[in-house]
């Protein structure tokens, strides 16, 4: 049996939000009771265009493709298909000819729906949508909708009614209730969202009236701005920003769009770096590691693959004060709490399998499962947790919202290719000797063989495996020369024949 967990954001106190900013990247740490609970990283070089609103100009209309190319001020022209033009679909479900809707030189407001890929430009839409905390605003549509991901019919109707009821007077636009509203939404939250989005749209329209050439009208919020919009609530005690310019920019943003955050914002001016002051960098290093130590002396082992992530719980040095079953129970209880936190920090998504230490008592199993469910209920991301299966494993699923921490900060090891292990020097030696044996049979006219390998492999061939090398030379009746190649890894080698 699976249980769906919904995080009630307003009920979870957040002690601190730390915002570390540089020209290259922004890092946001969420602390609860002084302990790192969430981590977000955004790099300037990887910031996409999706959500950006542009004032564009049609440079070419292609009736055969029912598409158009627009200049929006980017390096490459952007692509607009008939299906992405608001009002192009007829009552019969077909589309009007694009040449009847657009012409060269025409100017219109568009939004990026898909980032450029390779040589292809950005994909556009004329359906403008602006995201708030709980709502998405559709300025050119009067429809009130609810995200299709909210499956509960009664809840969908309740949220639609709430949005319709609190809609601002004389409001012409429409709204879509975001999936996160499923986790708890109030009338005040909807009103705050509507007021914020109305101000945002007014700013975009005024900007469009002022510009005379294709240009950016609105860029989707930065990580720091989204943090103020989405994560600040009554339980937030302080928001510390370590960059003066970013602090001023966030203060100005908060005054206009998130008034509740104004008094909580503080410029951190300590001598030590902000993340170092709160040991965040150390926590990041731990979250990148495969092994996580438990205070009790036990430890967890995390393995992330393409299909799933696995977590193995071990007692380690913990022996307990009573019997072994008590040791196992206490280790599993602590592991449940740490696992929930590590899933957030590592941002692991998809299928997650937890192998708790086997417990003989049913009450212990239920207590551990209950603690795991309580701990993951604090997650902002949707999760499902099953009970123990017949193999003693607990399966969970966690929605993929962004790249995992490891995929963001790391890349595949060029030495092991992602295996996490490399061949021993002795294994490589034997591979080389087998290859020389094979080549000697194929190229009997060759006079000598030369081995290029790393220092460790060459040393082993000259020392412990020298007898095997000598016997091979006698067998093939040709000399074998050795040469160290300093740039080779332990697994790299070549055999040169001459």
Automatic annotation (TrEMBL):
Domain S1 motif, first and last residues per copy: 51-133
Gene3D superfamilies in UniProt: Nucleic acid-binding proteins (2.40.50.140), Ribonuclease E, catalytic domain (3.40.1260.20)
Cofactor(s) listed: Mg(2+)
Presence of the UniProt keyword Manganese in the record: no
Any one GO BP annotation for this protein: rRNA processing
Keyword Manganese: no
Keywords, ordered alphabetically: Hydrolase, Magnesium, Metal-binding, RNA-binding
SUPFAM superfamilies, per the entry: Nucleic acid-binding proteins
GO molecular function: hydrolase activity; metal ion binding; RNA binding; RNA nuclease activity
PROSITE patterns noted in UniProt: S1
GO cellular component annotations of the record: cytoplasm
InterPro entries the record matches: NA-bd_OB-fold, RNA-bd_AU-1/RNase_E/G, RNase_E/G, S1_domain
Protein name: Rne/Rng family ribonuclease
